[in-house]
Design brief:
Distance between the termini: 31 Å
Largest sheet: none
Strand content: under 5%
CATH architecture of the largest domain: Orthogonal Bundle
Order of helices and strands: HHHHHHHHHHHH
CATH superfamily of the largest domain: Hypothetical protein, domain 2
Number of strands: 0
Length: 209
């Protein structure tokens, strides 16, 4: 599925090519069934929490909307801030979810069929207009929902740490340095980022041996 990207990365970057050979084929898959609204609400739920806690809060959140796989933006009008706080959202996260819903209804945050027509930069600009939504959150949406091929989340701790490990460096690269270095990976920076995440996994396995 990603063989063209893998071949390109091996050709332009010997060190990353070593990681690719250690890991094997890229198995990155997208979750296209999620709407942008759902992706952003779930991302906000996970901010500053471990995965288990966030999943528990989201499960309670869904109970507020019986009959829905996931609520639509206009469904948020049927619940109070107190109800949202009761399932575990902080005041800041309640405000963020409300703003994401409002901007989804107004079209600032596009529906699934419309967001695919926009460039990566346009999507970042429009979605980061919502409260609580930063560039990293949108980059995760670009990678895991839209399957955009050339996204390098240079602020991501895992990507930066994976770079440090894959290239045998003592210190983490600054985001700007990583972006500059990653120019050689274009137009397949998403797959490069995926392998940098896997470099962290390889190091963990090696540490257990």
């Amino acid at each position: 599925m990603h063989s063209v990207a893998e071949a390109h990365l091996k050709r332009v970057d010997r060190e990353l090519g070593r990681t690719i050979r250690q890991v094997g084929p890229c198995t990155l898959k997208t979750e296209s069934a999620r709407t942008p609204f759902q992706s952003l609400v779930q991302a906000v739920a996970h901010q500053q929490l471990n995965g288990t806690a966030a999943k528990t809060i989201l499960k309670r959140f869904l109970v507020l909307f019986p009959g829905r796989r996931f609520p639509r933006p206009d469904d948020l009008a049927t619940v109070t801030d107190e109800q949202l706080r009761a399932v575990g959202f902080s005041r800041a996260k309640v405000a963020a979810i409300r703003d994401i819903a409002d901007k989804s209804l107004s079209g600032v945050i596009p529906a699934s069929r419309n967001i695919r027509k926009l460039s990566d930069d346009e999507i970042v600009e429009r979605l980061t207009a919502a409260r609580g939504v930063g560039r990293w959150t949108v980059e995760m949406l670009l990678i895991f929902k839209l399957g955009r091929p050339d996204v390098l989340p240079a602020d991501d701790f895992g990507v930066r740490n994976g770079f440090r490990l894959a290239y045998g460096r003592d210190e983490m690269p600054k985001p700007k340095e990583l972006l500059e270095f990653g120019e050689r990976w274009r137009p397949h920076r998403t797959v490069a980022a995926w392998y940098l995440w896997r470099a962290v996994d390889l190091a963990k396995v090696g540490a257990k041996k």
